[in-house]
Amino acid sequence: MIEKRVAIAAVIFVLALTGVIALAVRTTGIGLPTCLTDVRPFSQGKVIEQAPKRYEIHYVARMWKFDPPEISLVPGSVADIYLSTADVTHGVDIIGTNFNLMAVPGAVNYARVKFEHPGDYLVVCNEYCGLNHQNMAGVIHVTEKAAAPPPPPAAPAAGAGKAVLEQYACTACHSVDGSAGTGPTFKGLFGSKRVFADGTTTIADEEYIERSIEKPSANVVKGFDNVMPEMPVPPADIHAIVQYIETLK
Ligand code: CUA
């Protein structure tokens, strides 16, 4: 009977196809996407580093962004990605990998991805999900983590020192234009010779200015009263003040 032969051939074909797929999955190490029925949907994204180069990522798709929006991994990382949606159905495609899953309300889908090569992997939504669907994107940075360089000292913006002087009310007593005040003017101060009440002298450098802020009574300029309070000023602010005073020639 011809129908019986066709049926048997069809069964053999399906079995063979299943075998080939199973073999391909085994030999290439492809993680099959899975719908997990024992994991509750979540609404918060997170990245958990389980071991060096092993990550568990909870990815949440929502109108119209991914959470976390940016993820950083080192090359060679294996990520177990659990995908949930906070609202409607989204499709999540990590460009450059074979990760392409639906984010379905009420369900958690899972796939494992290995990020072999450095680069920025764009994450896009490929299921129409509303007004801003076309802008729904995230990124996974795969880069060697350089030893974090020390943060560069904040470059004081022009006028930063002036603002600091005003912040600590220094200008209430010290003018910046040479006019008289309760304390000596800052104009022409930097690099000038200071003569103190006790007869000693010094050249006004950064150290002197710093000392004068922290311990004003140590060197009282001749002709002025010892009235300035000690000011707890952070080093960065002192630096900004000194830089500003330097410009007051
Ligand atoms: Cu989310 Cu389209």
Description:
This protein has two domains: 46-142, Cupredoxins -  blue copper proteins (Immunoglobulin-like); 161-247, Cytochrome Bc1 Complex, Chain D, domain 2, CATH 1.10.760. The chain has helices spanning 2-28, 160-167, 206-214, 235-246, and strands spanning 34-36, 46-51, 54-62, 65-67, 70-73, 77-85, 90-94, 100-103, 108-115, 119-125, 137-142, 193-195, 201-203. By secondary structure, the chain is an alpha+beta fold. A hairpin with a 5-residue loop joins strand 12 and strand 13 (201-203). Helix 2 crosses helix 4. Dinuclear copper ion binds next to loops.
Descriptive labels:
249 residues; alpha+beta; Immunoglobulin-like; Cytochrome Bc1 Complex, Chain D, domain 2; 6-stranded mixed β-sheet; 5-stranded mixed β-sheet; 22% helix; binds dinuclear copper ion
Helix content: 10-25%
Largest sheet: 6 strands, mixed
> Could you tell me the number of beta strands?
13
CATH superfamily of the largest domain: Cupredoxins -  blue copper proteins
CATH class assignment of the largest domain: Mainly Beta
CATH topology of the largest domain: Immunoglobulin-like
General form: rod-shaped
H/E series, N to C?
HEEEEEEEEEEEHEEHH
Look at the structure and give the mean pLDDT: 83
